What does this fold into?
Amino acid sequence: MKQRLKKATQDFINFYLRWLKKNDLEILAEYKVDYYLADINHYVFENKAFTPEQMRADLLADRGQDIRHVISVINPDYYSNGNLAAGSWDQWYEDKFKKISVRD
It folds into this structure.
């Protein structure tokens, strides 16, 4: 796997696990990724005894294709080195949340 793609996938995994733990991923409902997120969530909950490091490594190995599909549907801006233009997935999420809050 190319290093940039691996980094992008790992960054998303780190973000996703943090926000999943907080049960605060409603922004992702705006994207047509429900099927993939359901599979990822099922994997996480089936393997909740894993250490955080093991979970991240196994998600990359076993669900990496699903995660890359989610990223491609969201289609955020990236720099050529694999870093998000928003700075981080957390920042991307907060920016999206602010835009929704302004609309309401």
Remarks:
- The helical segments are 3-21, 34-46, 52-74, 89-103.
- The chain has a mean pLDDT of 90.
- Residues 16 and 35 are 15 Å apart (CA to CA).
